[in-house]
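Late entry, zinc ion complex.
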Amino acid sequence: MKTKGALLWGVGEDWKVEEIEIDDPREGEVTVEVAASGLCHSDEHLVTGGTPVESYPVLGGHEGAGVVTKVGPGVTGLKEGDHVVTAFIPACGQCMPCSKGMQNLCDLGAGLLTGNAISDGREWVKAGGKKVIPMCLLGTFSPYMTVHQASVVKIEPDIPLEVAALVGCGVTTGWGSATKVADVRPGENVVIMGAGGVGMNAVQGAAAAGAKRVMVIDPVAKKREWAMDMGATHTFANIEEATPAINELTWGRMAEKTIITVGDIQGEDVAAALSVTGKGGRAVVTGMGNAMNIDVKLSLFDLTLMQKDLQGAIFGGLAPRAAIPELLSLYQEGQLKLDELVTTRYSLEDINQGYQDMRDGKNIRGMIVYTDADR
Ligand SMILES: NC(=O)c1ccc[n+]([C@@H]2O[C@H](COP(=O)([O-])OP(=O)(O)OC[C@H]3O[C@@H](n4cnc5c(N)ncnc54)[C@H](O)[C@@H]3O)[C@@H](O)[C@H]2O)c1
Ligand SMILES: [Zn+2]
Ligand SMILES: [Zn+2]
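Prediction complete; structure with ligand written out below:
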């Protein structure tokens, strides 16, 4: 079918909304009418070149929710009309990592930026006859997408799709970074560096896990203010301001857990995180940086002698098929804030404004909400 999509044609370019063509669903695939898509920072790494791709154009977007409109052969557990959230890592349930309970590391993840369909390897999105690489095998910057069943998770139909989209990436990633990967325990001191669409949910996760102090570092004053509403107990503008305060608050023990959720992580951020992490503590790296950057700054002396733990995290260490419905059920019970995360809504045409607002620190999350005008 013909539809539109926000395409990126090269590093440093704006997103361009153009006509695209997507296949009808084949074996194991469904077509989804996308209702909303979050403007996650991970798509920005395509723009900066931090995340390199094999070819252009790229169809952006990986944090979405919508309604199934067509079902291909061999699809189980999904029918027309079902509401779904995208999983930016597909989970097949059968590969070695999936079988070991690490669905966030599913082997299908190897194809995330190839533009080749999970089902049969074909190129299924085109622009002017040219291959398009849909971000994370999804491409939610289009009002329609055809995706493999491993890439979507069915949800309850009464949850607003606009907030459901958030658990496709940012919420689950942040929440799991705190609750699963950092394994925050009641009474702990937690530092979160970067209070954006992901970090704000690390704040929610740490608070829900019973942290005594949730200490947020973010240079943007409004982010610090919002973080207090989401469960932070203290906020600081930068590491220089945070370090003596955390030292005093914890009587020199520093944080048991530190989570880095800055937008474009640099080597120095790792050193900063470890410096506010105490003996035997853990620093979790959730934010992404340039794929070519191998210059991480850290004190090896401190890492060894203080027995610190430096741990990466993808999708908050969680399984999409379990975490997405679980988090939405917490939202329904009033125990997870989602409405408050959507700061500004945009039409697809306004996507570049949405990303400019993200760079300017104006949004917790900007959200494309599709209307008939976009279709
Ligand atoms: N590991 C994963 O599974 C995963 C999933 C989603 C996103 N990400 C990555 O997580 C990061 C955050 O994404 P987001 O959508 O929340 O981005 P965002 O732009 O919404 O938020 C980033 C925040 O970091 C703050 N910040 C910038 N520099 C800082 C610094 N030096 N110290 C403290 N705060 C700083 C910004 O003010 C902003 O509030 C990105 O790198 C993104 O690609 C990783
Ligand atoms: Zn994301
Ligand atoms: Zn798998």
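Residues 91-92, 94-95, 97-98, 106-108 surround zinc ion (ligand 3) (CB under 6 Å). Will revisit in the morning.
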